[in-house]
Input
Amino acid sequence: MKFLSFATAIVLSLAATPLFAQDKPGEGVTVRPVIQPVIEEMFQARIVFRALQDLGYTVAEPQEVIAQTAHLAVGTGDADFFTDSWDTLHEAFFKEAGGPEKISKVGTLVQGALQGYLVDKASYDAGVKNLGDLKDPKIAARFDDDGDGKADLAGCVPGWGCERVIEHQLTEYGLRDTVTHNQGEYNAIIADTISRQKNGKAVLYFTWTPYFVSGALVPGKDVEWLSVPYSSLPDGAKANTEINGKNLGFAIDNLRIVARNDFLKANPAAAKLFEVAKIDINDISAENKLIADGENKSSDIDKHVDDWIKSHQAEFDGWVKTARDAAK
Output
């Protein structure tokens, strides 16, 4: 009887092993993500990390570097994947990191991301509706904050990608003599911009969605998006830059996961997860507003992730199941 029990146990153990392996296809594998040092991007990244953990992967502490360096880290093998690659905006970074021979863009994590220039609503209602209007020194002086007579544009941090578009367009639209592109720490610059708008001053700034700024300065209420004279992107790139009849000057973009090709080949479960994971841009904007309202600790981000997964449990579980099935 003891022999039969022992034999039965061995059979059950052997039978359970492949089932467990299928349930946790990432068991024993440590994945190395890279993210930007931007707290508003941690939410979507951690949702993906949580799904990887459900697949059995160990997720290493992410490296934090700006977008250009993040792509290079994946391309050189210093990281396995980056969750926040803008499909059009970061195309140059993708190519610089080795392009499709070394890395791949997988899935579409977030759809419909916007970028562009905005002004306070009073300025817009007074007739400043196109970035090209700032070629007029009198109009540009409306947004002069330091007394030099030129409009001060709260702009983009070098290495993010948006700075290339802004610099290209300032030249293309003949705005070098009337507009200054301020490129310090974005959060500090935009905090000052928000404060000035709240105090009734004219403001000119660049921002994007999903991000908390459009919750603090609401388009259509506090501010308005500017049009640009015509579409013109660096290196002659072509993309759809129009939404609701307005040409924002930047591609209507999607955020994708970039991963090393050899990592994807060796980890079909992770590859499939990256392919099927999708997060509504409005959910990210809502979470970013929580951050702006003071829920800005790492533990707060984890709670936001917990809450999102609970309210999207069936969807989240579907990603994980599809990823597990891909590893069989």
Residues 113-247 form a domain with the D-Maltodextrin-Binding Protein; domain 2 fold (CATH 3.40.190.100). Confidence is low (pLDDT under 50) at residues 1-20. The first helix runs from residue 2 to 23. The first strand starts at residue 30 and ends at 31.
